[in-house]
Amino acid sequence: MPVGSLLLVVAILGLVAIALVGIATWRDPRRLIRAEFLRERLAAGFTAREATIDGIRWCWVERAAAAAVAPTLLMVHGYTGGKENWYRLCARLGPRYRVVLPDLPGWGDSERSADTDYGFAAQAARVAAFIDHIGGPVVLVGHSMGGGIAALAAARYPGRVSALVLLDAAGVEFAENAFGLEVLDGGNPFAVADGASLERYLGTVFHDVRARPPLPWPGSWAYIAWRRREAAFEQAVLERIGRSDERFLPWQEAGDIRQPTLLVWGAHDRVIDPGAMELYAQRIPHARRHLLTESGHMTLMEQPGEVADAIAALLGPDGT
Predict the structure, then answer these.
(1) What's the CA gap between 10 and 16, in Å, rounded?
(2) What is the mean pLDDT of residues 267-277?
(3) Predicted confidence (pLDDT) at residue 7 exceeds the cutoff of 50
(4) What is the three-class DSSP state of 161?
(5) What is the DSSP string of 30-74?
């Protein structure tokens, strides 16, 4: 075959391959996001794991500690979040701890089932079962919705939790703000359906624009398409954690928390008002409090070094 004809065939095959990748990504926009998550996971030194626990398929990543006797940090992500949200913080923690980052059931790569309760109480019970699987007790770290779940798990399953860290935790009746009023009115302030709502979402959760994750095209397109498909599920979860009779359950039961506890909040949190830290402290009077002056709701990504230092101070030099 002449060289010119061979090059033409190669070019055509290349265009076909690009078209097939494009079609596959259109059908499942998260393919592109997963590819980026894989790159981040490998760069952060985490290993992917999967197991079925009490009939539910969990997906998580973990990284071993430098010492076999180091404590395990189990980090529980927030609403619309995932295990990847923790990578910046884990980079600051270094090899001092074994770190386990799951996608909660219903979220990310873990199993989702129709007509299943993904509220605070149900997820706290699932987290307790997950701890039994990975080996506890653990230092339980929760952000936002994950903070409410972590608080409830620490209160209800104390033998599984050696220490507790709550970052901008949900599950408490905080001072009225635009976010809370929209939730009570039946909306989803975190909804993403187009470029404008994506900008609104990022502007709500991040105070420092420099801390936002980069989303160049076509990543932004894939993220918007994926979140648009998630809208019904997000609304169903928000109905449980934001509008049902269990929306304040973590705070109501926080008085049963006896473990060493750290409360971390962003001073510019537009989701859960910073005054909520003091409300949690009323229920957990022994808790340490740390207000981050340069953060909004995403403290774990906006000031990861300061959060890592606060966790290390709570656990002490021997991690206990």
Answers:
(1) 10
(2) 97
(3) no
(4) strand
(5) HHHHHHHHHHHHHHHT-EEEEEEETTEEEEEEEE--SSTTPPEEE
Nearest to 28 by CA among 233, 227, 226: 226
Give the contacts of 246 (CB within 8 A, at least 6 positions apart). Answer: 119, 120, 121, 240
Chain segment 72-87, per-residue pLDDT in tens: 999 999 999 999 999 9
CA dihedral defined by 53, 79, 303, 126, rounded to 10 degrees? -20
Q: Residue 234 is which amino acid?
A: E
CB 100 within 8 A of CB 136: no
Question: What does the alpha-carbon distance between residue 143 and residue 264 come to, in Å, rounded to a whole number?
Answer: 9
What is the pTM assigned to this prediction? 0.89
| Angle ∠(120,272,222) on CA atoms, nearest 5 | 80
Domains (ranges, CATH) in the chain? Answer: 29-315 (3.40.50.1820)
Mean pLDDT of 279-304: 98
pLDDT digits (tens, 9 = 90+) for 206-227: 999 999 988 778 888 999 999 9
Q: Does the pLDDT at position 237 exceed 60?
A: yes
Angle of helix 30-44 versus helix 3-27 axis, rounded to 10: 90
Residue 138 CA to residue 103 CA, distance in Å, equals: 17
CA 238 from centre of chain: 15
Helices (H), 160-260: 178-184, 195-205, 219-229, 231-243, 249-253
Helix (H) or strand (E) holding 290: strand 288-292
- Who's near 202: CB < 8 A, 6+ residues apart? 212
Residue 305: what pLDDT? 97
Give the C-alpha separation, 194 to 312, whole Å.
Answer: 40
- Distance in angstroms (rounded) separating the CA atoms of residues 141 and 85: 13
- CA angle centred on 269, ends 226 and 295, rounded to 5°: 95
For residue 199, the SS3 value is: helix
Q: Please report how the helices 219-229 and 195-205 are oriented relative to each other, as an axis angle in degrees rounded to 10.
A: 90
